[in-house]
Specification:
Number of helices: 0
Strand content: over 45%
Strand order of the largest sheet: 1-2-3-4-5-6-7-8-9-10
Number of strands: 10
């Protein structure tokens, strides 16, 4: 895995058809088959690992989140808000990604199941390196 370097991150999320866009400065470490992205979102810190065996999202800070995604599998996760911890499940229908020399593309379609119901989700992510390639 390469060293962490700065990147621009854009995540387009669709929850039950309602789309939102999140953009931020982030850090990424890449190799030919996997990537790790780290970024701040509100009062939280997020680490996303993208690899051949799936995607893992972990968030610490204002709330805690642990989600795993493996294509055509159901995975258990954790969502903790305001001291109350609840279980969630992800059922990943489609997961595709590409790691380039200085970028990462990710597309996922999944169902997020809570105790109180479910949401149909889609995520499109682009992380593009911002450093000058001539810098050391």
């Amino acid at each position: 895995m390469s060293e962490f370097r700065p990147c621009f991150l854009q995540i387009v999320t669709s929850a039950d058809g309602e789309e939102s866009v999140f953009s931020a400065e982030a850090e990424m470490a890449l190799d030919s088959l996997s990537a790790i992205l780290r970024y701040r979102q509100g009062d939280g810190f997020v680490c996303m690992t993208i690899a051949a065996d799936g995607v893992r999202i972990e968030r610490e800070g204002d709330y805690r989140l642990r989600l795993c995604f493996t294509e055509r599998k159901i995975q258990s996760g954790i969502l903790s808000i305001g001291g109350a911890e609840g279980s969630v499940e992800t059922h990943t229908h489609r997961l595709g990604y590409s790691v380039g020399e200085n970028s990462v593309l990710l597309s996922m379609k999944y169902t997020l199941r809570f105790d109180s119901g479910k949401q149909e989700m889609k995520i499109r992510l682009l992380a593009q390196g911002t450093n000058n390639p001539e810098e050391k």
